[in-house]
Amino acid sequence: MAGSPVPPKPTAAPRVALFVTCLVDAMRPNVGFAALKLLQDAGCRVEVPMQQTCCGQPAFNSGDTRDAAVLARRFIQIFEPYDYVVGPSGSCIGMTRAHYPQALADDPAWAERARRLGERTHELMSFLVDVMHYRPRGVSWPATVAYHDSCSGLRELGVFEQPRALLGAVAGVEMKPLEGNDVCCGFGGTFCVKYPAISNAVVTEKADAIERSGAQVLLGGDLGCLMNMAGKLQRRGSPVRAYHAAEVLAGMAAVPPIGGQG
What we know:
The chain is α/β, with parallel strands linked by helices and 262 residues long. The chain has 13 helices and 8 strands. The strands form 2 sheets. Strands 2-1-3-4 form a 4-stranded parallel β-sheet, sandwiched between helices. A 4-stranded parallel β-sheet has the order 6-5-7-8. Helix 5 packs antiparallel against helix 6 (108-118) and helix 5 crosses helix 8. The two termini are 33 Å apart.
């Protein structure tokens, strides 16, 4: 969290569970492999629990607290044995840290277990910088990039400086200012399904800002937001590509072609 004391780096290799998330698993597995590589490069012993499922965020955001609580208990049981839980998604990690205690409010014992696990659960960029004090070395990626700060990561978890610090260590990356970088892209999980016209209007404004930035690549830390913006950019024929920041940091993103935007 922003303003919180920086914890010392663990003296021994921590046992870290990688929470892959549904969208990464189904839509962009490369993000999961990139997260795994970064955590290993940072000195972690990484495991990917095979029993993991959805964190319950769609149910919770739709008002289905009962089913969200069922998934929250399952998540806690699976991930409690680890030193840390890390995921490449501000929204999913925000759910586990900020909203599990709410979903389990009528069960104090489980709510307390959720709170304790939440203290050891981190968004990937934040964990690499704030806990592991990691800095990528030997990574080169010549491209102009604009960075979008997803709502949950920014507002619930205080993720802002961390991805910029990591990307600043990548040779060749040139950051372009993005107007409204902290403004919602219009995805909002189930919001884009319930209110498609509003969602489309919001993401259209976001796409306009991305193209005005002159960047070749759009980066972010939340795949839902990136898919929403990338889809709009692609439908309007924009040359701007979209990647999760982890893919760039791990050297697992294709370099944009010379002569593209920027």
